[in-house]
Here is the input.
Amino acid sequence: MKSKQVQKILIGCLVVITLILVFLFNKATTSQQLIEDQISSLQDSIKGLNNEIGFNELRNEVLREMNKNLSSQLYEENFTHVKHQTEKISEEAKVIQQLITEMEQGWVKMMETKNPDALLSYFLPEYTTNSVKIDTQNMPFVQRHNNSDFRIHLNQLVVTKDLSLFFDEPTFYTTMVRGDIFTTNYLSRLTATHKDQVIHKSTILCFVSGEKKNGKWLIGNYNWTRYDDFDASKNQKELTL
Here is the structure.
């Protein structure tokens, strides 16, 4: 009799233990599924952020590559024998050339107003610049900037008292527009004066790319090579742009 009672108690205990194990297993499975769902959601968020960052990096890289390829192509030709663009150009290309002309006058207005925004208003929020200066001794000097430090560079330039800049009308060689992207190259001439005395003259070869944002064409990559024409032996001032 007692043996049967013990057996019943043991069976009851086993049933209770089994139910507890089943409950714990189901709870663990549910928790694991919640964790997996949270990880999946987090991965989707990170992927979306990476896509956004990747798009901006890709856009900047496209603009840089377009400039580099166009620069290589034109340097392979003898640039001193290339005539300026005379063929009929599209209306959009005319808008791009007007943008460049106004941007160069932005340098002039910036020095007059001591406000870098007179120039930077023609640029995208994110942009890069690259300048190469060839002095009269044929020594190169390279400067690279982006939207983080180009304004600092311009602020250092505008504080120069009684310094004025003047640009001749640019001579365009090629202007290409494809979709919302443009690339153009042109020749320009710069004159700088200090207290109305000419202190600097140079010839500048420029390669510029950009894109249309909110219906407005803006510059994203601005490259120029400046050949200084002044004679250093005359003790004329050095100009850093």
About this structure: Strands lie at 123-134, 140-146, 163-167, 171-178, 181-194, 197-213, 216-228. The CA atoms of residues 211 and 217 lie 6 Å apart. The first strand starts at residue 123 and ends at 134.
